[in-house]
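Quick one: structure tokens for this chain, please?
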Amino acid sequence: MKHLFKPLSAVVVALSLSSCQLTQVDHNQQFTQLAEQVMQFRLSNDPYQRDDVTAPYLLPNLSAQQLALEAQTREEFLTQFDAIDMAKLSEENQINLTILRAQVQNNVDEYRYNNHLMPLTSEYGFHSSLSFMINQHDFSKKSGYELYLKRLAQVPRFFAQNIAWMREGMKVGFTQPQAVLVGYEDSIQAYLVDDVTKSAFYQPFTQKGAFVTDAELSEYQAQAKAILHNEVIPAYANYLRFFVDEYRPAAREAIGISSVPNGKAFYANRAAHYTTTSMTPEAIHELGLQEVARIRSEMEAIITEVGFEGSFAEFVQFLRTDPQFYAKTPEALLKEASYIAKKADAQLPKLFHTLPRRPYGVAPVPESIAPKYTTGRYAGASKDTEAGYYWVNTYALDKRPLYVLEALTLHEAVPGHHLQIALNSELDYLPDYRRHSYISAFGEGWGLYSEFLGIEMGFYQDPYSRFGRLTYEMWRAARLVVDTGMHLFGWSRDKAMQFMADNTALSLHNVKTETDRYISWPGQALSYKIGELTIKALRQEAQAELGEAFDIREFHHQILRHGSVPLFVLEKQVRKYIRETKQSQN
């Protein structure tokens, strides 16, 4: 395969110089050259960055040869990173190296632990990921249509490669558990339509681009219909047959990832990756139990406050079943979420002196994935001409309680994910591998901290809404317990769901979908609470150290100004801000 980046030998020569022969400028230049090599490699292997319609791979090439070659190159990059003397770099390049190296290491680890054998989770998969590629094309021009059509024509090959890896996973027991795959076929079936003009993939051809003639659009429409009918729809139909007839019957019965080959080591690796800490899964489990006990006492206090005569379980059942807590229509739920979001917008200047330029909208979770999807999520913009979106799940309205909507909105929209991610993308003094990266412990920790900020923003005035915020915090604390419980301590799916149901006011539908998410995405659920507790601890430290000099807007600026960073980097940067602020007061 021909690569578009310079030979690694050039970097090896530079790195062979002894550190005593190099000035700090040389060390920084050395790192910058290596970073450029990594980014050129990444760009050359990203099919979505290619605009040549004759390119052989416009969708990912998942051949064994290609994956092995990429893994080998990344291993070489890691060797070069480790040969750099971190202490000789500028402070900013130390952060750059830490983040870029972690990104490469994660790619290596996922390949080493055979993650490519399992290209699906309980709510997502390669088949649904393709729908997002539509927004990556410029349909104002002919070239955009032509590139998109060429990509669509490669869907059968892309599906066949994924299915081949799934068959390899079936041979060694590296599959998703059967329990989380019940109903999953519906997310595949959603793409099978009798009339291809009703397909989501046909949507770009329903309107004419500014620089496209009527005749050209007509020709593109004819090509699209043929490709969808002859290539894309049959590929989805074949995947559906494979999933129902072969994959799900052969899927493992055990819930925890520790049951697969090298599963315990993989889980420890995922825990370290998603928390960016050295905490062991055992320590995380204990922390979760402590947090659950603390939050439970606060929830009990609210039950007493409202004068409810009954047990915790009876109060939660009241919340789950009383119609007053649920919207009657999807539009009503979306309007309430939008109203909360606008109220939050108005409070931002009190807490931040730097706000993002990019706006955001409120929209329903797409119907094709809504049944098994989480209750809400932030969908970032893929290009400068788009807004970000706060997605609200309007499927099964009787499972979407209004008393948690304030916490959900603050987490997913502002001051949570939209504010943090949009600001991150606008930090033009950072390299692209930091501007567009997302470190779960930081981002999800910030989202959960944003729910807490709602108290200072004037939200949660109603005791049920306060209980809703606590149930969301409890939800994240319970994740520490059930994720480690299932993947390390042998908890059953039923035991995990019962723990969630007993300690939160989440609807039982959400309890099920969330538990299945943790099963199928090991370790990711650990990031939220670990990140939030770190940010809260740093704020308490800053307030204690700075006293009257503490400025909440400046503190938030210091948290966000470096973009998404590992928690240990965040701790170092905030403590530096504390020291410098104290020195300026003397």
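The first strand starts at residue 360 and ends at 364.
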